[in-house]
Amino acid sequence: MAAAADGPCVRSSRELWTILLGRSALRELNQIEAELNKHWQRLLEGLSYYKPPSPSSAEKVKANKDVASPLKELGLRISKFLSLDEEQSVQLLQCYLQEDYRGTRDLLKMVLQDERQSQALILKIADYYYEERTYILRCVLHLLTYFQDERHPYRVEYADCVDKLEKELVLKYRQQFEELYKTEAPTWETHGNLMTERQVSRWFVQCLREQSMLLEIIFLYYAYFEMAPSDLLVLTKMFKEQGFGSRQTNRHLVDETMDPFVDRIGYFSALILVEGMDIESLHKCALDDRRELHQFAQDGLICQDMDHLMLTFGDILHHAPVLLAWALLRHTLNPEETSSVVRKIGGTAIQLNVFQYLTRLLRSLAIGGNDSS
Questions:
Q1: Radius of gyration of the chain measured on its C-alpha atoms
Q2: How is the chain split into domains, by residue range?
Q3: Which InterPro entries would you find in this protein's record (predicted)?
Q4: 96 phi and psi, to 5 degrees?
Q5: pLDDT tens digits, residue range 130-174?
């Protein structure tokens, strides 16, 4: 039996995900709608839902008379270890005790009085925290997968929620992706002596997993919503800077067990850029002999900037499909003006074995599925 936690536990992201999948007691349409209305802001905030520590939050925890002192103290230690807002750390502890802790109140008291057992509990809560972060992203992935599926029983409720998320989602998630690949790894000096090498490695695996999931969400978003040419340019520059996953700030921490996550970041970076070029629309415009209607036909300056960027590509395998797609787009829109550029870009894609790369990409994503995320 789980030990009862002091104070109310907010709805966990894992619980929300279970509800959205229709695996909980809350299965009626109005119940799904109510849950999404209540929590859509969390889904929009994504990983930014979790805030950094602050003196004001610590003071609120200390002044909270509804939480027992030992739980407050443990909450503050969790905050230090995870670099997480103090109030959210106490909430996280309460949710863990309510959902995952399998002891009694008396056993919990003993654990809190024993330093070694307290440390073990903090590490379990860290794992729970990493899962909670992942479940926020899983919820959004689930909504984007099914909000236009006429066969899904909650399609209307999902679509209403996606309408609320649509305008700001990609910008927020793109910023979170940038923050993740630029952030410095935690150390025992900054996060306390529980932050051992093993825990730093655990943190970095989570960091890579979250990056790949954020990109998967952005890719899925652009499968339904058009990408502006200016956004394609911004994303191309960002992925180039980041080496399509290979130039992590903490790349010294990468070992072979993390390679699937790094590869997945590269695959989704490439897929996002190809999706942004809107090749499907290009094909339709060409068949109708209305090439001028394609959005890139109307933005010559962006096309020139993209040409210059593409000519610097070629040192990473993930560049291959991006180069091939851009060569196809430029050749279709401006065959006479861009022949030399297209030959160079297309030639580089062939040198990178683009078709073998596409086979590997499809196999990897088919095998990886949600296991990698």
A1: 24
A2: 1-225, 228-372
A3: Nucleoporin_Nup188_N, Nup188
A4: -60, -45
A5: 999 999 999 999 999 999 999 999 999 999 999 999 999 999 999
